[in-house]
Amino acid sequence: MVYEGLSDSYTALLDAAKEAMGRAYVPYSNFRVGAALLDDEGNIHHGCNIENAAYSPTNCAERTAMFRAVSDGKRPGQFQAIAVIGNTEGPIAPCGVCRQVLVEFCSPDMPVVMGNLKGDWTISTVAGILPGAFTPASLDNGER
Questions:
Q1: Dist. CA 129–CA 99, nearest whole Å
Q2: Which of 19, 41, 62, 104 is catalytic?
Q3: Which of the chain's termini has less CB crowding within 10 Å, N or C?
Q4: Which residue, among 70, 34, 68, 38, has the nearest Cα to 49 in the 3D structure?
């Protein structure tokens, strides 16, 4: 896929997200989403959306990638960027729940690369996609 004007490293990350998109389990919506999470060692953790007939157990691609990375031993602050892709009119953005998970594990300035299958893209940051986020620091009531 050609993403005009996008750096080679972010293009590679979107390509990895597209590969993950092909693994999505979406028998109900047929709406495939892929994510690729780059860690501090240069490893890519793939994620795809996984549906369930009961709907609420469904998991988004971004959270699948993050939870996979955490289960592989990664911890908050060890991530460099995430890319997410879908077959949408414009670049796909993480849902609200995924944004909250990114806030928990990623630095506020970590890039979030959003794309679609037509080659459209945009880049924001974790803080940019969830301003005023509830963070671990929000739990500090001064009693510690």
A1: 7
A2: 62
A3: C
A4: 34
What region, left, alpha or beta, does residue 8 occupy, with left being phi > 0 and alpha being psi -120 to 50 degrees? Answer: alpha
Confidence label for 140 from pLDDT (cuts 50, 70 and 90)? confident
Domains of the chain: 8-131 (3.40.140.10)
Q: Which amino acid is at 34?
A: G
| Residues tagged in the binding site annotation for Zn(2+) | 60, 95, 98
> Distance between CA atoms of 73 and 88, rounded to whole angstroms?
32
Active-site residue, 62 included: yes
Dihedral sign of CA atoms 132, 134, 135, 136 in order: positive
**Residue 133 pLDDT:** 94
Residue 144 has a pLDDT of: 44
